[in-house]
Amino acid sequence: MEVILKETIDTLGREGDIVKVKPGYGRNYLLPQQKAVAANATNIALFEQNQAEIQARINEETKVAEALAKKLAGTTLTIAMLTGSEDRLFGSVTSSDIAKKLVEDTSVEIDKKNILLQEAIKELGENTVTLKVGFQTTVDIAIQVVPLVEAEEN
Known about the structure:
By secondary structure, this protein is of the alpha+beta class. Helix content is 33%, strand content 25%. It is elongated and about 65 Å long. It starts with a strand and ends in a 7-residue tail after the last strand.
């Protein structure tokens, strides 16, 4: 089944692209959610008329993503975690933890789904994490995991 995307979908393509998808995905998700329209002659002609407008939106999205990537490049977040004996973490650092710390430190809000962790961070030290900031635009940031130092009660 061929459809024309009405918005950018990371796994498929950009707005205005004609893509081939499985019939069930198109019929049951893309069309009802109004994320795409069927690729028939009428819809193709309509999208070709609006091509300049679509291209302007895509260029704007790209500029915003590149600006965000430039802002975040070289960023190091320090996350304090509870540790036990031998500096082992209680729990792990997840994408949710990174998203919260990113908002606190840089005022940049990134959805936790766009934080690409191979697996949760379970050790102290520095790790590199990739953030997806736009369509096919990523940036690497450093995550420094340190032991949480609690104030001693007197």
